[in-house]
Amino acid sequence: MTAIHLPAQLVSLPPQIEPPKIDLQNLLQQTVEIGKFCTQNAAKIDRHGVYPEREFESIATAGLLTAPLTPKLGGLGLGIEASSIVELLQILKQIGRANLAVGRIYEGHVNGLQLLQTFGTQAQIDTYARDVRDRHKMFGVWNAEDRDGVKIIPLGKGKYRLEGAKTFATGCGCVDRPFVGGMLPNGDWQLCIVSMDEVETTIDPEWWQPAGMKATASYKVDFTGVILDQSELIGQPGDYYRQPWLTAGVIRFAAVQLGGAEALFNAARQFLQSIDRTKDPYQEERFGKMAIGIESGQLWLQGAAAQLRQYHATFAGDPALTSPNAQALVAYANMVRTAIEHICMETIQLVERSVGTRGLLPPEPTERIIRDLTLYLRQPAFDASIANIGRYALQNAATDSLWTDEPANTRI
């Protein structure tokens, strides 16, 4: 393990940047162009010790880092305003289709800005919005840990000292402002933001030796000795685990994962076309199943967006208010996550059977995409998510109105 003082600008961009002038339709088109480069470069960065530097230079320049900020902060409210959830999921799926590692890191940035704008004070929001808008700083959420997890120790006079480490710190090398969760002396869980370019941390790249998602650079980071100000603690203790925000966010990584399934489908189809194996009836059956699954995943994402729009004008609601529909939103988000995981797993299995051993050897992209998607699908608490769905369904009598406020007789 080596002590690394990260440079002031992790992504190679000037320290002061003219905020990009962005609109949603232009952003969607630029995402398509960025995706083309991500696809072309995916195999090159599929190795230990690298991260998608050039990809995030393009993402920053296009305005995708700024887009999740609300319009008054210079963004588009992408994914923060419920009206733009469809476009956010479309962008996440597009990036995931191009490279799952890039999609994973970008989804973490969106998650971080959602947490900031939901639970931060106005002063904190303004400060960190300037970091994103004017300096292209990237956010992330580093919450996983082992036994040597992070503790936040009050020092008095508004100062705090961190002790311990985070694992799966996705985006080491390009994430400048990670949300880091830690335990207070009373056992409460507190979020803070660490400015990685202003502190010294001990980073262990060797901890990350995965079969897939190598380019996420999800290292172990020891924060022991980092001193924070009160202004760098975000929200109240326990806010990170508040519902429905915590679970509603799973639709974001589900969108990235579905993009990976689409990429796998396309790569397998191109491989079979290249060896003239598309007319076999068993291949046709497999691709028919995959097409149904992928379209089903798209419909699940549309359903999730509709649920969020119906729930509140902002993502998962106002934290100062309690909604009677929160449990329904949580259960629906868990359904989306579960359904898309099943779709992705079936796609992997059908592609493996379709392309055979020859199609699973590098440099065929199917080999890398399967590794990446298999690892990315291993999100925590899968069984608990399904149990939550069943518990909610059992506690509600009318099955035709579990997921909507509309009268039952108006539904198809």
* Main sheet characteristics: 4 strands, antiparallel
Going by helix content, strand content and strand pairing, the class is alpha+beta
- How many helices? The count is 11
What CATH architecture label of the largest domain applies? Up-down Bundle
CATH topology of the largest domain: Butyryl-CoA Dehydrogenase, subunit A, domain 3
Question: How many strand units?
Answer: 11
Strand content: 5-15%
Characterise the protein shown here.
InterPro entries: Acyl-CoA_dehydrogenase (IPR050741), Acyl-CoA_DH_C (IPR013107), Acyl-CoA_Oxase/DH_mid-dom_sf (IPR046373), AcylCo_DH-like_C (IPR036250), AcylCoA_DH/ox_N (IPR013786), AcylCoA_DH/ox_N_sf (IPR037069), AcylCoA_DH/oxidase_NM_dom_sf (IPR009100). Residues 37-129 form the Acyl-CoA dehydrogenase/oxidase N-terminal domain. This is Acyl-CoA dehydrogenase. Belongs to the HpaH/HsaA monooxygenase family. Residues 253-374 form the Acyl-CoA dehydrogenase C-terminal domain. With 412 residues, the protein is of the alpha+beta class. It folds into three domains: 24-138, Butyryl-Coa Dehydrogenase, subunit A, domain 1 (Orthogonal Bundle), CATH 1.10.540.10; 151-234, Butyryl-CoA Dehydrogenase, subunit A, domain 2, CATH 2.40.110.10; 242-402, Butyryl-CoA Dehydrogenase, subunit A, domain 3 (Up-down Bundle). The protein is 47% helix and 12% strand. It has eleven helices and eleven strands. The protein has helices at 24-41, 53-62, 85-98, 100-119, 122-135, 245-248, 250-274, 281-311, 326-359, 365-376, 382-394, and strands at residues 2-4, 139-142, 151-156, 159-163, 165-169, 177-183, 189-193, 201-204, 219-222, 227-229, 233-234. The strands form three sheets. Strands 1-8-9-5 form a four-stranded antiparallel sheet, with no helix packed on it. A hairpin with a 2-residue loop joins strand 3 and strand 4 (159-163). Helix 7 packs antiparallel against helix 8 (281-311), helix 8 packs antiparallel against helix 9 (326-359) and helix 9 crosses helix 11. The protein is globular, with a radius of gyration of 21 Å. The termini are far apart. The model is unreliable at 1-17 and 406-412 (pLDDT under 50).
